Amino acid sequence: MSVDTPDGAVATRRPGPGPDDPAHPVRVVVWYRAPEGDDASVTAAYHRISEALAGTPGLTGNELLRSVTNKAAFAVMSHWESFEVFDRWERGPSHQEATAPLMPYLDRAPNRHFELYEVTAAY
């Protein structure tokens, strides 16, 4: 299933185990690039956003990931109870304001600054 997001990105949701289950978890990945010599700015913005989003219904966690080969490249992976819950939050009024601190660092170079993953297996 393809989904157009409010910022113009297209997210693809592939069928997996239990796709009809409304509680089927999804992961959202957003890519960022730190300014040269200022990796701390991305990390600081991530912590501000994570603190602000604590308690958001359906958001079960998130991770800040850093490239092993390119120290300026980051990704945030957020864990959501379901696509429906994520979609409701993303289309809601608090999404843009809550995520604003990281917006200047969005990495649009790979032409995919946003992607949605469905969990198909986990241990």
TrEMBL record:
Residue intervals of the ABM domain: 26-114
Pfam families tied to this protein: ABM
Name of the protein: Antibiotic biosynthesis monooxygenase family protein
Keyword Oxidoreductase appears in the UniProt entry: yes
Keywords of this entry: Monooxygenase, Oxidoreductase
Region (Disordered): 1-24
Record InterPro entries: ABM_dom, Dimeric_a/b-barrel
EC numbers on record: 1.14.-.-
SUPFAM superfamilies linked to this entry: Dimeric alpha+beta barrel
MF annotations from Gene Ontology: monooxygenase activity
Principal EC category: oxidoreductase
Annotated source species: Sphaerisporangium corydalis
